Amino acid sequence: MSNRYGLEIRSAAPADAAGLAALLDSCGIAIAPRALAERIETLRQDRGVALLALAWGPPSGLIVLHWHATLVDAHPVATVSTLAVATDERRQGIGRLLLKAGAQAARAAGCGVLRLDAGPDPEAASLRGFCAATGFTDIAARYERPLRKRS
């Protein structure tokens, strides 16, 4: 998709699952590579995109977006469900580049707004600062409940 300063941003493929699983694991999200490969393939066939940033080895970052129509918005809404940058590669502009590429993909899909959920965890404070610096405004709280019993 793009190449800037040796950093390539492109669509993730199931073959990238092992590297992405390691990246996500370093960010506290454990997903088996096989399951991740299946989810990437499903996402590629659905209304969304997974973009990864590659420098000289394993993936440096990942952004996953989904879009959907709503009754109150004139255009589809894009939601960032995952934004991860390798711990040792943060504060180098990779998150900004991923967000820019994600926004371009959302615009190409006809979306009118981009949403990102910062969440309540302690690391969310730095994400909130990133969101403010990249043009997001804090608009609402999020509530959720499980749809299946936890085992």
From TrEMBL:
Instruction: Supply the PROSITE patterns for this chain.
Output: GNAT
> What Gene3D superfamilies does UniProt report for this protein, alphabetically?
3.40.630.30
Q: Show where the N-acetyltransferase domain sits.
A: 7-151
Task: Extract the Pfam families matched here.
Answer: Acetyltransf_1
What are the UniProt keywords, alphabetically? Acyltransferase, Transferase
Molecular function via GO: acyltransferase activity, transferring groups other than amino-acyl groups
InterPro entries recorded: Acyl_CoA_acyltransferase (IPR016181), Bact_Acetyltransf (IPR050832), GNAT_dom (IPR000182)
Q: What is this protein called?
A: N-acetyltransferase domain-containing protein
> Which species is this record about?
Methylobacterium gregans
Taxonomic classification:
Bacteria, Pseudomonadati, Pseudomonadota, Alphaproteobacteria, Hyphomicrobiales
